[in-house]
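Archive entry: two folds, one per protein. Generate the first.
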Amino acid sequence: MMSEQAAHSRAETPLPLLAVNRKPAGGARPLWRSGLVWVVLGVAVLGAGVALTAVSGTADGTGAPVAAAVSPDAALPHLAALGVIAPRGGVTAVMPAESVRGAVVTGILVSEGDIVQAGDAIAALDTLPRAAANLAGAEANVRGKSAALAQSRLSLDSDAAAAKAAIALAEAQLAQAERSLARARQLSPTNAISQASLEDLQTELDVRLAQLDQARARQVRLATATDQHPDIVAAAEALRAAEADLELARIAVAEATVRAPFTGMVLSVEARIGEPVSSAGVVRIAASGPIEAELEVHQDRIADVTTGATVSLRAAAIPDTLAGKVIAIGTEVRRQAVFDADPAANTDSRVIDVRVELNAASAELARKLIGLQVVADISSLGDLP
């Protein structure tokens, strides 16, 4: 009985509270300053960053680098792309003609940054002196052949005049023969002339008539077939051959001087005096005209690009932001050719070309920086003013 009461009394007695001293005793470090807590927090933050990167980098489930092409605010229709500044007409390495590819450069007539017009001389080759001498000879030959043709024509004209005179002489001689024969026939009944003499006069008349017919035939031949006369045909053919040689000589002279194929700016001089022209050409010329940015847009984002979309472009070499608008979207998917400086960047993306025309102010800033790499932000929020 007593044991049950004792037990009941102990059960109703409240347990004493444990007093905890929150002030660290003996200089002990508080829990928030413990290294273990910071390790746990660091692991948590790192895990959250990895998860966020994984979500933003593969949001479309394709593995495409979406995070590098889209602005942080996914609700805005923006995307980023790499590209280069380029003239609309492109950049051309000017080469000499195929026939003088092995020629040595004897003179460079332009410098980097020069503005050249189509047809302006750029460089001289060592084939020029010989070509010039051949040209002079060809010109002299043409003059000689032309004179020969003229002489042939003049000779034919003289022959025509001679034929006309021969006709007149033959007519006079024929008339004389006719008169002589007529008198002889009058004397024949009186036996004043022999029969043999009468026959001789008749023969002379026939000869004079034949000579007149021959002279008239020659006159007709000279008058109606001057251009087909063998002498004229031969002289004309010789002149045409000389003129062909002259044209070849002129081409050789022209090819000995390298000229600008179009109006533009000299970006670089690749040739050196005293050396043959290499595969790099003589100079590289950027065509004049509008300045553009040739962008590479990832194939998974090309549907977000529209013609007329505004574009802002940035580059370290230009302190101001360039502006333009999309004027053309390519139709061919190819491997990217412009790469980010980040060594971890993807270098095997499939991209589509997008051409952006810079506005006047931006084009003026970028005109002398052809080939400059830019980072573009493409937006479809409206066109440029």
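Generate the second and append.
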Amino acid sequence: MTEKATTAAKPAKEAPAETAEEITKGVTETFAPMLEHLDSIYQIIAFRVFSYHGLVQLCLILLLGVVCWFLRPTAIKAFDRLWPSGRKSQLLKLRTTCQQLLWPVLWLITLWVASPIMRELGYATYVLRIATSLLNAWIFIRLITSVVKDPFWAKAIAIVTWVIAALNILRLLNPTIALLDSIAVTVGDSRFSLYLVIKGALIAAFMLWFAASATQLLQARLSKAKNLTPSVKVLIGQLSKFGLLALAVVVALNAVGIDLTALAVLSGAIGVGIGFGLQKIVSNLISGIILLSDRSIKPGDVIDVGGIVGWVTTLGARYTSVRTRDGTEHLIPNEELIIHQVVNWSHSDKVVRRKIPIGIHYDSDLLLAKQLIYDAISETTRILDDPKPNVLLRGFGDSSVDLEARIWINDPEAGLSNVASELLENVWFKFKENGVEIPYPQRDLHLRSSIPVNLDKAALKKTG
């Protein structure tokens, strides 16, 4: 029984494997229809291009290109009148690219005009259509690469454009779209094909890029507006940014074919997530909008929050950037500026007062010391004459007569400690020149002991 089973199983193990010729034959049979289609397209293109009608079209294309080249200087002069050049123009690179594309644009226009004329005369226009597709792709790629700054995205756009142009020339664009559309997945009543996904991704990428570019252009325009306050500029910029991004997402979803009403449940889940997980983020976002709308803190203000003194450089949607005098950037969440006490040195007026304490010796001339402080104040550059500075007698301390110089400045963003340092330096030199003494701390030491101390005067004289 065992030998028979072994003998019966042996032929299955020694079954001949599939040969390389059979594999090659199967692959050839699979791709044979596609290869035949490509071969037929090649034969058609070769026949149409190298035929009498094709040669006439090639000559016409070259003739129109030469004519447009000689018309190029006239077109450049007209272009310069319509779009004058400017050094400060944000679209200078785009203008230069458009000027360089005048020749291919004129060439393309003449080809568009020549195509119906050739059809009326009884000539084929296949070669004209190929030239038109190539010129369209070339012009589109040059325009996009002049606007898109990222080299990766510029190269990706160029590759996609050339692929579409090649498929259109080979008459494979519609079959390719049909093939991609046939690869689909159905979820409920919605059908998602590979073509729709690619189309939606391309539209979403374009809309997001357009939203970012439009926001940058709008912010550049707002920065030059003199009638708007800095907080209003930032508020308009942030609201336009979020609005354009939301519009880009909605357009991309509609392009894919997603019904926005079906997202009601998802929106509720997102709302719950925002209420729990994203509470701080939303709080900072709302706090930023409040700060921008009530203009309590705006770019350029000098603030003191939590011991951090600096001026506001950026007021964003989530945080506020405060730059200190040592160049450190502090990113403070907007919520902190709402719930904590903030000292704004330039909220309604940049004119602020500083109090600088100065002490003199009890034996010094008080009136002379006050006059010298006034002289030092007049020699300090940033101190204002109006409001008038003042020197007050604040009290009698343990070691000194306590004076206080009260001064006014109108540029707190330039620093608060450096003006005090300059004034104290001037006071120091004034006091040294006029013999006004700055006291040292003095202490009286009283020794009490129950053990009598006997001092040997002779011993003290010897040691002295």
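Annotation attached to the second fold: The two ends are 129 Å apart (CA to CA). Residues 1-17 have pLDDT under 50 and may be disordered.
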